[in-house]
Amino acid sequence: MSSPVIVIAQLEAKPEYAEQFRAALEPLIAATLQEAGCQRYQLHQDLDNPHSWMLYEVWESEAALTTHQGQPHFTEFVAKAEPWFASSTIRRYQPLDA
């Protein structure tokens, strides 16, 4: 059995594109939540920076995450939003048995 993969995606838009960036996230999130293997895909906004968001993602496996990254709704979002990014940091984690 494969292990779940947790993704923390920190996304910051250039201030002049923040509204478009946020609006473009909505259909991405809706489509992603319908994907097999997606257990959670939740957007959070930074309390101190309104141009910054964090996506908390839980995938049932690395394969499910890889499939997601090839989906048209994901690749189209990345292509559309790329000029709007000020920065992004993507980190992947695996749960540890305590």
Write the layout of secondary structure elements.
Layout: E1 5-13, H1 18-32, E2 38-45, E3 52-59, H2 62-69, H3 72-81, E4 85-93
Antiparallel strand pairs: 1-3, 1-4, 2-3
Helix pairs in contact: 1-3
What does this structure look like?
GO terms for molecular function: monooxygenase activity. InterPro entries: ABM_dom, AI-2_Isomerase_LsrG, Dimeric_a/b-barrel. Keywords: Monooxygenase, Oxidoreductase. The protein has one domain: Alpha-Beta Plaits, CATH 3.30.70. It has 98 residues and is an alpha+beta fold. Helices cover 34% and strands 35% of the residues. It has three helices and four strands, in the order E-H-E-E-H-H-E. Strands 2-3-1-4 form a four-stranded antiparallel sheet, with helices on one face. The mean pLDDT is 96. Strand 2 and strand 3 form a beta hairpin. Helix 1 packs antiparallel against helix 3.
How would you briefly describe this protein structure?
The chain has helices at 18-32, 62-69, 72-81, and strands at residues 5-13, 38-45, 52-59, 85-93.
Number of helices: 3
End-to-end C-alpha gap: 18 Å
Work out the oligomeric state of the chains in this entry.
Answer: single chain
The helix/strand class is alpha+beta
CATH architecture: 2-Layer Sandwich
